[in-house]
Amino acid sequence: METDMGRSRQIVRIAELEIDPAQLDSYRSLLAEEIEASVRLEPGVLMLHAVSLDEAPEKIRLLELYADEAAYQAHLATPHFQKYKTLTASMVRSLRLLPVTPILLAAK
């Protein structure tokens, strides 16, 4: 979403993942650890939400919100994200990153 006065643009993405069902518990644990560290340690990570589909728990969806492109690139370079990517590489059967445009993001 474009901010006032031409300031930087927030980055919003949806990630669609399919995880090897035999490794789902391990994946979920590593994902939770990575999300917690990202939100706690990175000021530019504004939101990371993870859900799985009820009818197919191996299908994970992430909603990601970053302050701007620099925050997103910084996130990709962090040790906790690199650990997550390395340790989950063999667990992820597919990954699709979808850039999206928010209509309204609201939380209580």
From TrEMBL:
Annotated keywords: Monooxygenase, Oxidoreductase
- Pfam families hit by this protein: ABM
- Show the GO MF annotations: monooxygenase activity
Outline the extent of the ABM domain.
11-104
Domain of life, per lineage: Bacteria
Q: Which Gene3D superfamilies match?
A: 3.30.70.100
Q: Which PANTHER family match?
A: ABM DOMAIN-CONTAINING PROTEIN, QUINOL MONOOXYGENASE YGIN-RELATED
Put simply, this protein is called Antibiotic biosynthesis monooxygenase
Q: Which organism is it from?
A: Shinella zoogloeoides (Crabtreella saccharophila)
